[in-house]
Amino acid sequence: FQGGDTCEYLLSSGRFLGEKVWQPHSCMMHKYKNSEAKNCLIDKHIVFIGDSRIRQLFYSFIKLINPQVKEEGNKHGNIPFEDKSASIKVDFLWYPEVNGSMRQRIKSWTEGSVAKPHIIVVGAATWSIKIHNGSNEALAQYKINVTSIAPLLEKLAKSSDVYWVLQDPVYEDMLSESRKMITNEKIDAYNEAAVRILNSSSRNSKAKVKVFSVSKLIAQETIMKSADGLHLPESSRDTNAMILMNVYCNKIMKPIDGSCCQPQPPLTLIQKIAFCFFILSIIGYLIISLIHRSNYRKNKSCTDLESGEEKKPTISTPNVSTLEMLLHSFCKLGLIMTYFYLCDRANLFMKENKFYTHSSFFIPIVYILVLGVFYTENTKETKVLNREQTDEWKGWMQLVILIYHISGASTFLPVYMHIRVLVAAYLFQTGYGHFSYFWIKGDFGVYRVCQVLFRLNFLVVVLCVVMDRPYQFYYFVPLVTVWFMIIYATLAIWPQIVQKKANGSCLWHFGLLLKLLCLLTCIYFLSYSQGTFEKIFSFWPLSKCFELNGNVYEWWFRWKLDRYVVFHGMLFAFIYLALQKRQVISEGKGDPLFSSRVSNILLFISIVSFLTYSVWASSCKNKTECNELHPSVSVVQILAFILIRNIPGYVRSVYSSFFAWFGKISLELFICQYHIWLAADTKGILVLVPGYPLFNVLVSTFIFVCVAHEISQITNDLAQIVVPKDNSTLLKRLLCIVGFFSGLHLFSAMQDQSKH
């Protein structure tokens, strides 16, 4: 439990992750772009008052607004800066000592109707030490001057943000002879005096001058890289400026990955209703449990004293049992969603920024691969892509993706490109699995569609309500859902061509290939016609599902990135099932898939193709260019993996039960990571155990995996109740679901209206 104010932590404590990445204690710092800085500081006046160190901070700050600014002008004079496009004024005022002149300037802002700066940054001391040769009299005078200025700063702090910058340590060995009297001992004495006076001045006042002490910690780590032993290196100054920007702007801009200084968001109307529903579910479950326990005790088996025979209870209440199961599921779900909310919406647990190193990604990868190989078992069947094998495939891919996310490996392009193949492989399995089912079973009933849609979307819909996030935010589920509907529509529309029908005539196979060709044409057209795509998904109610930040561009980008791979999965399933039907391939236990010669040739080609793709992905220089090629070439590595995994008979006959276990809950793992393993909607890392990074990962991972497994069971239980096999009952349930989403839309509209 972090307690306190995250602004206090941002201004006073933290540590370096690597050489240049600063991590504040307990919260996340946002890296502001020029456009964001301008939007935050529009029509603002900022003033920096002090010596050459404050001048350095001034330049680093204005470079966040305009990176083209050069450090030029009178070093010992005032320096103005103005950005006319955003009406931002930033001034540096040269007052190297805390004296009467500085006091007079600050006092002028407190008098009458003079326009006050919105942000005031003050700090000075090294000149006093230098000019007076570090004398005790100078320190005594410094205390008097700070004492006289403190009430004025407190007065300004009622309407402006006022920061007192403590003096950074120096690197004494590098100081010139004229600065040798500036020692760290003297600097500490001046800092202690300033902090004591400012704290005593604001003890009985709500307004408070914020002490900017974090620069001391940063300087302790970096001052040895200073050019003169006094002034900080540029990277450290930039970090201080970014901290200053976060302190002021986070509460205005509310960036997702900037949790420092952000207040807890208020509960929305929909969230309040959701929490009331879960509370009622918990109460209802407890009442029913008590009633059942009471009935059980009353009807407990007992001996009839007259006949000596045992009487047995004759209670049979299947309806109550279904209701109890429903309430029990919602009860557990309510407790889990409370944990989700506390982790990623309430300011209860700490959050930290990610920091990528090669070891943080590759060491866990090696570890889980060893575990996966250790838990090897024989498969129940030896078909290509059998259930155990696909679960195993999903499992190890999901674990790699999780490690990729928590380590922040997206900054390393070769890893990013390989992870893109894993996401494509998930979609490939979507095309392969659903095509195979419809082709073999010929079941296009509503029950099957509702079951799949419920299992895919249940958790995401609940999270949209509880975490106040749009559906498109959890982009992978909308992607899989839309592709499932496309597969269903392709095969269900007239003429319905299934395996049973196609066995009668080869013409039906050509008919199906024609359908697939039409699908490929539509995909190709939409991928190069952004306007048409956006028009389709901008119609209500689709727009409510697929818009993110007011447009569907993000959805188009996500869809386009893996646009062909589902089609490839469907085509592979069709070819494989056709070969299987004609007994071209051998799937016996221990048998190679083809003849020895063909198997060896295909295996060699697959290994070369797999490695060639990896070499290409590793040599990527530009993410945009590689993303353009990815939809067309990702299938190469996917098919290569399938052939390597299935051609040798022994390899096809075994699987990793460790990976398969995770594969069964892969969807829940992918979605849950957003809020209870990572933090700030995947931008950071959740910290349950501060100060012990490895132990924290172990604890949060254990809870995260348990929760994902529990949600998977809850989803399966509710699917049996919400989506029954009886068509008339299913129709009633569907009407209830339509009513639920109508109510959700109504409350959402009311929320939006109240915001405006």
Automatic annotation (TrEMBL):
Pfam families: Cas1_AcylT (PF07779), NXPE4_C (PF24536). It is a multi-pass membrane protein. The keyword Nuclease does not apply. The chain crosses the membrane at residues 269-291, 355-375, 395-416, 446-466, 473-495, 507-526, 561-579, 599-617, 659-680, 692-711, 731-750. GO terms for cellular component: Golgi membrane. Its main location: Golgi. It comes from the Eukaryota. This is N-acetylneuraminate (7)9-O-acetyltransferase. It comes from Smithornis capensis. The gene is Casd1.
